[in-house]
Amino acid sequence: MKIRLFKEQDATQIALLFHETVREINLSDYSIAQVKAWAPDNINFRNWAKVCSERFTYVADDRGIIAGFGELELNGHIDCFYCHKNYQRMGVGSKIYRAIETKANELGINRLYVEASITAKPFFLQMGFSIIKEQQVECRGETLVNYAMEKFLTLSDISQ
Fold it and tell me: Quick one: which of 147, 124, 150, 125 has its CA closest to 137?
């Protein structure tokens, strides 16, 4: 499995990965109505290509299958971070996260932050993030719980 930067031709796989992961994996922590609001049926593939191109989007490429992806913004915000439903708990997220942390170091970013779902919270805690607060966010008429989390980077974090 290779961790690399996003290419425009990845957009369709990434959009489908997001949709299927939210609909199947996040269903363990959110209701059907909530996951349908979060990942609606009308997928906008062009929007995914645009957003992923504007950020440092890392993908885990397993011989042409995208096993996961994560996005780093210049201000240290990790936006989308998802692992394919068939690649859960296989180290894919850790590999993507290490690439994001390495890039943050190169850019001189010393604080990463994320709004983690209930499902993703344990992963980010394992990566050394702290919970700032629990939040309730509105999404297409549904209220979802997530967690504002942050991690301050040190040289020892980057060298691991």
Answer: 147
